[in-house]
Amino acid sequence: MMDAADIVASVLVLGIIVVSLLSNVVVLICFMYNPEIRKQVPGLFILNLTFCNLLLSVSNMPLTLIGLITTGHPGGSGFCQIVGFLDTFLTTNSMLTMAALSIDRWVAVVFPLSYHSRIRHRDAVIALGYTWIHSLCFSTVATCRSWVGYNHLYASCTLCSVRAKGAGTQFIIFTVVLHSLTFLLTLIVLCVTYLKVLKVARFHCKRIDVITMQTLVLLVDIHPSVRQKCLDEQKRRRQRATKKISTFIGTFMVCFTPYVITRIVELFIPGPINSHWGVLSKCLAYTKAASDPFVYSLLRHQYRKTCSLLANKVLKRSTFNSSSLRIENNARRSDNSSNATNNVQPPTEKPLGQ
Predict the structure, then answer these.
(1) In whole angstroms, what is the distance from residue 30 CA to residue 69 CA?
(2) Where are the alpha helices (DSSP H) in 2-110?
(3) Is position 350 within any domain?
(4) Confidence band (pLDDT; 50, 70, 90) for 210?
(5) What is the pTM of this model?
(6) What residue intervals traverse the membrane (predicted)?
């Protein structure tokens, strides 16, 4: 019997699945529709991240939902091992892809003039090849050693300490190395690159502010309201850069840190961990798949413009279809009325004298 916490968790997972599927499909449609997005190097990283998020949304998340509803093992052992393999592979791959995206942004901001010579499509393919090999190595080792299965703490098919009890120290070393070379490595790369990006952005903003202030001093007759608007725009520009960097790093930490910490604590604490906390930490990790499209794609001008173009095209087509249908119905109605008029026979007059 499901308790209130399981019901809330089930609704949360269902909502994450819906949002993740819709948002990632929209990103994929934008990528396929807009050739400019396909030409850009970051588009390859975003495509790989979208692929991982979509596959996670249709494989792991539904099984977690089933596990919460049935409060038991969803599917057979072999099927659960496949899903556990995907859980390790997709999570690792998405984390490393985020690190690659941050390096790409760092090069674009710090070396803007030589960006296209430093980061090419070939370099992006090599970086993605590394993320796939890195992810495949860890997920394959865990599957071959039978360390993946249904974990009741997270209500999902993933790395399972119960199945690895015989391995002991080996499983502990594997789990620590896995999270060190995925979560910790990605977090360090994100912090170093994005903080450098923020430093460069603030430096450029400061230079612009100096030029703006010098111009304002020369324009002594400028209206105070215009001067204040310029100062407010400077402040907004600085805040915008800080907000973007905080979003990139903050969403990663909020979504993955509780899950990784729970994983590490699980190895060294003999007592049981609250299952509600385990499910919550897993749900937070799932929310990264739903938030990535907004953090990396849909809030950018290019993707918003593509979405608006697609929406206008769909609306125009539906409007055209409805108007065509309306015209056709009116034409059919007028034809019917004209046919009815033609079918009416005029009354015959009797000859006189009869």
Answers:
(1) 35
(2) 4-33, 35-39, 41-70, 77-110
(3) no
(4) low
(5) 0.81
(6) 12-33, 45-69, 127-148, 171-197, 245-265
